[in-house]
Amino acid sequence: MLAQRLSLLLAATLLAACAHQAQPLNEGAPQVTACPSGFSADIRCLGGRDSAGAFYLIAMPKDWNGHLVMHAHGGPLLGAPTAKRVEEDLIRWSIMPRAGYAWAASSFRQGGVEVRAAAEDTERLRRIFVQHVAKPQLTFLHGQSWGASVAAKGGEMFTQGKPYDALLLSNGVIGGGTRSYDFRLDLRVVYQYLCNNHPRPDEPQYPLWQGLPEGSTLTRADLDQRSKDCLGLGLPAAERSAEQARKLKTIVDVIRIPESSVAGHLNWATFHFQDISSKRTQGRNVFSNIGVVYRGSGNDAALNAGVLRYAADPAAVARFGADTDPSGSIPVPVLAVHGIDDPIAFVELESVWEATMARAGRADGLVQAFTGDNNHSYLSDATYVSALAGLTAWVQQGRKPTPVTLDAGCKLAQASFPSPCRFKPDYRPAALESRVPTRR
Asked: Which fold has domain 2-176+325-367?
């Protein structure tokens, strides 16, 4: 099995290397478009749809500093791409053009958990920018959340001609697809043990790693109603029954996620898992909970005896890993900034990322910094300004940033961009295994 997995990974790597040599660009020029409401007249927006079907948006500040930020968004979203996605990204990341950086983002040509394709879409947009807009002095590849895995893949896939000078990964889902989502299978099996309504006993049964069977008509609203019925989610704590409160506390304590993120993770463990099983792995399982010992309930023995157990298919793991697991072989500086209390992408994933880059011989090319944030979707304006300034000094002057210098830079940035600075220079994340049980 191990030999088979290694063979599949090698084949995928060789094919990727052949496929990602620079090809002639045959893309039309972006068109002037209205920036989202609230943007200064000093920022000009360009947009379009590339040859693969991805929408994109570019923001050019009047006083451009010559640097370009290529943004890889989080999610991933499911369904067809939309222009609304990149508009929302620009609104959230407006600090980039406001701080003088050109900014560009792709919607990606398809929805779902497809990392390499998203990296290709981002690189295609970079080439559109260079050909039709301007030639930047420096290009930074920024990935947020799931987009950090896209950026990490892009950083290893596209190295010919050094298209990217450095990577910025913020609150990244950076443990690879074969490890980052294990706890969501744990959530599904513990939820089903407690609630037995996803699926209900009178509905067709399916393995929970599948997310949902193909053809299911279950909606997000339906799922929310089921979790409300069982756990009281969406109700004030005072209106939950004692049984609902007990079950919700069990999930929070066993899975080690805050109450506020239970509904979101259950949603991803349903619809994203369906995308993975139906579109990425030919209907085979990539998630295992064999050997997992669940702890924190009122009766751990009964819980461990009662939860459903699933073994992963090695070939499916290899196939999924070839797309979603970064190698760490990134030849340019990488700065990862992560909120310690991120409720979506556990900060412990950074321990996996550190080990990944070390195995690739790139430990010296990584700086990790941590903040006291508990918001997954955004850190602060001053934090990002400091991070980009730190990367610029690293690339141009060889001055490698540290958590201490990033904290100092953040406080300097507050003068122009008033916002919190929460760097914790002494923090080190624990191993992922300290939060997500080990499995075979």
From this structure: Rossmann fold (3.40.50)
Measured at the alpha carbon of residue 219, what is the angle toward residues 232 and 84, in degrees to the nearest 5? 110
User: Higher pLDDT residue, 305 or 13?
Assistant: 305
| Beta pairing class for 55-61 and 43-49 | antiparallel
Q: State how far the Cα of 60 lies from the Cα of 308, in Å rounded to an integer.
A: 52
Tokens of 24: 């002639």
Q: Which residue has the higher pLDDT, 18 or 31?
A: 31
DSSP letter at 279?
A: I
The ranges assigned to domains in the chain are 2-176+325-367, 180-309, 379-383+396-426
DSSP strand pairing (31-33 vs 55-61): unpaired
Q: Are 107 and 71 in contact (CB under 8 A)?
A: no
| Residue 237 burial (C-beta neighbours within 10 Å; 0-12, 13-18, 19+) | exposed
- For the cut 50, the answer to whether the pLDDT of residue 349 exceeds it is yes
Amino acid code (one letter) for 77: L
DSSP secondary structure letters along 26-86:
--PPPEEEPPPTT--TTEEEEEEE-TTS-EEEEEEETT--SEEEEEE--S---SS--HHHH
pLDDT at 247 over 60: yes
Please give the Cα distance from 236 to 371 (Å, whole number): 30
The HSE-up count of residue 39 (CA atoms within 13 Å, CB side) is: 26
Whole-model pTM? 0.93
